[in-house]
């Protein structure tokens, strides 16, 4: 009986510790999900990796300086079901993305949707920002009106 109790107690402690690590791993607290933005750049690298993919874009600022931005996306198994592969974002391609910015101001954020050139809108989101069909439809109207931030689009209403 004592052995059974010890084993069960050990399993309970291990489960609690594992659950907290899993929850921390899937936290999106580093992204400011209260605002969505859009930016265009050229692909520097597409890291089609687990547990998260990363899209690195070279973005030219208003002053002409180029800055490397990084965007976190979903893992390959989820991306493959959405038609996104390791070859979707080829280096040098022009890509427009929606993203929720990093809270600390670094250049990057959580991916929402992405669009290579004038191709279809894709959803590489891992939940750090909304890449759903509903979000894409909303952004199509906002982009047509010239908006690059959800805050600006909502102010204009």
How would you describe the overall organization of this protein?
By secondary structure, the protein is an alpha+beta fold. It is built from four helices and six strands; from the N terminus they run αβββαβββαα. It has helices at 2-25, 76-81, 133-144, 150-155; strands at 37-47, 53-60, 66-73, 94-101, 108-116, 121-122. It has a five-stranded mixed barrel. A hairpin with a 6-residue loop joins strand 4 (94-101) and strand 5 (108-116). The longest helix is centred in the N-terminal third of the chain and has 24 residues, at 2-25.
Compute the number of strand runs: 6
Number of helices: 4
The structure class reads alpha+beta
* Largest sheet properties: 5 strands, mixed, barrel
What's the Cα radius of gyration? 19 Å
User: Would you list the SSEs in sequence order as H and E?
Assistant: HEEEHEEEHH
Uncertain spans: 7-24
Please give the alpha-carbon distance between the first and last residues. Answer: 68 Å
Q: What number is the mean pLDDT?
A: 87
Strand order of the largest sheet: 1-2-3-5-4
- Shape verdict: globular
Helix content: 25-40%
Beta-strand residue fraction:
25-35%
Task: Record the SSE blueprint.
Elements: H1 2-25, E1 37-47, E2 53-60, E3 66-73, H2 76-81, E4 94-101, E5 108-116, E6 121-122, H3 133-144, H4 150-155
Parallel strand pairs: 3-5
Antiparallel strand pairs: 1-2, 1-4, 2-3, 4-5, 5-6
